[in-house]
Every structure is written in structure tokens, then in C-alpha cells.
Amino acid sequence: MLGFETARVVDAIGGELNGSVCRQQPLLEAFHGFDPEYVANLRPTQVEAIAKNPAVIRNRSKVEATVENANVMLELVAKNGTFHDFLASHPNPEATVQDLKERFHHLGSSSARAFLWRVSEPAPEWRH
């Protein structure tokens, strides 16, 4: 499976990890390196603590989406064998982007394309 930390765009905070390095470490710590099994099992009290942490996101809906997206990722891995196999199951990069947008919360076209590029998967060309 692609490491969840590598697949960080599907964690629903997309641009948050692309920002300053000072924000990256607290995010990685809060979500235990974006380990999908850990994130998928966060308790409500943990979600609340992350949402209130000024060094992280402070957006409860994004934190909740991160938990939901970890569950989606685990389901896709269970069904497809690996997350890479799920990505490879699409007929073309445009279909992959569309499917990612439909499955993962707080994920748009640009973040989905950037994710594919980051994990060395075929990505649609950028359109202006």
C-alpha cells in the first residue's frame, strides 16, 4: 500500500501540508504520521483535541474528513489489495481524479492531480 503519509493529499487537508514546514511537523504528530489505521480509529476526544490545537488545523470538519478518508483508504485497500492497485484500476488519469474527488472528502481536482503527481501515478494535464 502507498504510505498514508505519501498519500497525504487524501487526508482532506490537501494544501495544509504544502504550506510552511512549521505546520507539517505538528500535523504529522497529531495524525501519527498519517497512519490510516490510527487515524481511522481516532476517538471523538482525540478529534476535538486536534481541532483545537492552534499548531494544526483548527477546522473540525477537516479533521473529521481526515478520519473519514482514512476509513475510505482502508476500505479501498481491503477491496483492491493495495491503494496503488485501486489507482491503477481506472481507465485513464481523468477517471482516477474524478473517482478520488467522489470518494474522498475535501478533495478537489487540483489536489487530486497533485496527489497523483506526488506518488508518480499518471496525472491529467493541468488546464488553465
Describe the structure.
This protein is an all-alpha fold. Helix content is 56%, strand content 0%. It is built from seven helices and no strands. Helix 3 packs across helix 4 (60-80). Residues 9-15 and 17-21 have low confidence and may be disordered.
Strand and helix layout:
Layout: H1 21-30, H2 36-40, H3 44-52, H4 60-80, H5 83-88, H6 93-103, H7 109-118
Q: Key features?
A:
single chain; 128 residues; mainly alpha; 7 helices; 0% strand
Helix content: 55-70%
CATH topology annotation: Endonuclease III, domain 1
Major sheet size, sense and barrel closure: none
Cα distance spanning the termini: 32 Å
Number of domains: 1
Alpha plus pi helix count: 7
Shape: globular
Number of strands: 0
Radius of gyration: 14 Å
Give the helix/strand class: mainly alpha
Could you write a compact summary of the structure shown?
The chain is an all-alpha fold and 128 residues long. Helices cover 56% and strands 0% of the residues. The longest helix has 21 residues.
